[in-house]
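PROTEIN–LIGAND DATA SHEET

This sheet pairs a single protein chain with one bound small molecule, pyridoxal-5'-phosphate, given as SMILES. Inputs appear in the order they were entered. The predicted three-dimensional arrangement of chain and ligand is reported afterwards as a token string under its own label.
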Amino acid sequence: MSGFREAVIDLEAIRANVRQLCALVGTPHLMAVVKANGYGHGAVHVARAALQGGADWLGVADIEEALELRDAGITAPILAWLHDPDADFHSAVSDDIDLGLSTVRQLRQAADAALELGRTASVQLKLDTGLSRNGLAEADWAEAMSLAAQYERAGLLSVRGIFSHLSNASDDADAEALANFERGLFVARSAGLAPVLVHLASSAAALRLPEARFTMVRIGIALYGLSPFENESSAQLGLVPAMTLQGRVAAVRRVPAGAGVSYDHLWRAPVESTLALVPLGYADGVPRQASGSARVAIGDDTYPVVGRIAMDQLVVSVGQAEVAVGDDVVLFGDPSAGVPGATDWALAANTINYDIVTRIGRRVPRRYLNA
Ligand SMILES: *Cc1c(COP(=O)(O)O)cnc(C)c1O
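PREDICTION REPORTED AS:
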């Protein structure tokens, strides 16, 4: 029986996905990306499971996210790559968190923190190779690399890695970024840097662009068992979706033909119908944009969500089927089990599966299987 509303996270699926990805990719290192609370799955639980499955690095966006992992007792190497302009790098350096650096200013800030602490800061230089987000601009590569090499010789910094991120805009755009990245590596080596960790690929490129694998891949979405591709499913990739979002039918009512349902009466019953009330809404991260187009599973069948998805609840029309208060309802889970997937909800809401799992809110308790 499921909880009133809950996200069940199967940690064995995470371990199995990492094992599968290690086998497919074959790089010396694999980073599990657990930013944004492990894409909504719970960063600490996912991090532990990913390490058990064979990942040897953890990746997060902010230093705060990295510190949360350290506070939970996780000692594996962690990289954080997105910083407040006035970020205080001291806590990161003291807690052995690798800093992904995107500007010459950040290089100086990292070296300053190291000097004050009397330690060597471990850093990885992020290059902009065509995504135009963060990362060192090509015009700054030579200056940044020689400064980094100088700090390295002074014992302030250890440049453990060089990395970049692809746009996935097209094969041509990725090929161009790859060529830019190779040029960046050349500039780095010419400046005397010898980074051990060279990484460019996230899930999509790790799976489809072997030239982008280098010595490490950074895996996010695939770790959670979801496919980054529109034309290839989790099952085809040998991945198992780890999250099941489910609840229990909170009320059942029979309405006559013509009855309007939920706010604005976006939907009216075409014939006398049975409606099931599900206690999950947009406050829980269920996308309101999927009103009228998503489906949920109750028993062995799936049924349409009808009318507007509200803050706390949504309505399902089961037509003439038998459904009772307390029955389990699955919004999404592993499609191999006959339930809709996060990708189905993404299609219904005109977004991507990343957005569906990451947005699941705080009000939804997480329950872990195979911890
Ligand atoms: C989020 C992120 C990833 C993971 O991407 P997926 O597509 O989820 O595998 C990798 N690298 C960086 C820099 C990221 O921001």
